[in-house]
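Before relying on records like the one below, remember that each one covers exactly one chain. Contacts with other chains, cofactors or solvent are not represented anywhere in the record.
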Amino acid sequence: MKRTITGLGLLLASTAPALAGGIERAPQSLAVLFEQGNYVELSFGGVDPTIQGQDIAGYDTRDVAQGYGFFGLAYKHQFNENLSGAFIMEQPFGSDLLYPQFDGISGSPVLNGTRVEINSTTYTAILRYSFDNNFSVHGGLRASHADGRVSLDGLGYSSTAGYDLKIDGAWGMGWVAGVAYEIPEYAARVSLTYNSPIEHDFDMTESGGPLPMTFEGEYTVKTPRSWTLEGQTGIAEDTLLFGSIRWVKWSEFKVDNFLFPITSANNPALPPGTVIPLVELEDTTTYTLGVGRKFTENWAGSVAFNYEPTVGGKISPLAPYDGRKGIQVAAIYTMDNIKVTTGINYSKLGDADLGVGPSGAKRDVGETNDNELWGIGVRVGYSF
């Protein structure tokens, strides 16, 4: 029973990934580290977001968010009573937004053709050492491969309209470290994990915009650092309470350009020292609270609520929602050494006022409202 209930809380957090702050699609879970014995799992699913609104001219943008699928693989090995390790492959960051072309009736003449596409895959190799006093430490390395494309178009981008940036695939390295404390007889655990930023040195090709030329160069872009605090405890027979707090420093994820850098040096209207990156996001904190319960020898289920506060102010059209409230429902079926977890997520994505330009002085280009997301995910695990 304790094994099933403990696993339920850990698995729910990433069974049905959804959009979180910035361009995060999954919370980089280390749940596999806390499975019993040797364990391997496969995860897959899909997400269908809807983000729509009106531009400053009053035209409907139509749905700008593209649906996406995800895939993951994890293997955990128990070397001895104290030492274990895991290898995890996942897709934590990504974005696929396209503002449809204006057809005279719908679509946005202010943003039509603006697009961002980001893909990433992360590989984590990690070790965990458990002490005899219920404490454990974990740490390892992360390798990330990413690529992307950014296009700016429409009247809202004025002189930069028609700009296109292609980001070739590149690798980056980072690290992860954390600590946990457990009380097995109560299925209780609290853990704190830090993910370092990962720098990618991309080869990028810029074209279009105000200058009729193409420029190739190398840029450094960071995926953000994060802290994740997770906890769980038994609160009654066959019942588990669990939750998490996750903070991500999205302000260090910036994409700049060489072809037409917008700074106070070439635009006297900007405050001294101002530099406007192509992509600029705000830090986020996401909260999760849920309850899991074992119903029979084979079936268990859980429900959890997610909350991400709004940032406020003008939001980039490349990440056009502000805050999130969601519910996730999961079911686990266990038969012998096989465990199948299915999760469904529904999230209400916050309305956003869209703006372009320097922080604190963004030009209004529109708004989004009535945004939502549906996601479904499946994990198949095998213990041996």
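Helices lie at 2-15.
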